[in-house]
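Q: For a teaching handout, I want to show students what a protein-ligand complex looks like in token form. Below are the inputs, and the small molecule is zinc ion. Please produce the holo structure.
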Amino acid sequence: MKIICIGRNYTEHINELANEKPTDPVVFMKPDSAILLKNFPFVIPAFSDDIHYEVEVLVKINKVGKHIEPQFAHKYYDEIGLGIDFTARDVQQKCKEKGLPWEKAKAFDGSAVLGEFYPKSEFKDINNIHFSLLKNGQMVQKGNSGEMLWKIDELISYVSQFFTLKIGDIIFTGTPAGVGKVASKDELIGILEDKEAFRIVVK
Ligand code: ZN
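A: Here is the structure, written as tokens, with zinc ion included.
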């Protein structure tokens, strides 16, 4: 399986990192080795002093597809989840300055937190899903899928122009504002609508 991630999909987050608003979705990938094993802590890697959490809505692909039209994209997933795209912001900043790829900052071991997935039928409207991230009991990020610059079905259509989507692939749909640094002993809890989708400890 592969993990396809979208960057800069919420206006306020683009502004907080002083990024340019993209004309097309920003796309990058994480390998399956990036997945944080269930019930394991996230260990801050030695190569970074500035690991950021980014809470994101996840979509799990359930059908093989290529060149998917937006109006048919809803047939390619039936589960929605919540996760974290851990980012080594200091490493990413260096990559950006030099125009280099982001993998070292985004695709390292443990950088993809996959919380619980829930049937799509449990959500009234895919484009109105509330989610938030609590750090040590305080809400640090909150968003709504309705605020995405490119909505879930548009993202599926867009990325399928480049990559064949396969069963089990996961799309990280971008993070809202409020990203920040994690420290040892932090506890992160992801809330999707009213459900606790994940709870992880930082080491
Ligand atoms: Zn992200």
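A: Two things your students might notice: Residues 5, 7, 54, 56, 85, 172, 174-175 surround zinc ion (CB under 6 Å). The chain has one domain: 3-201.
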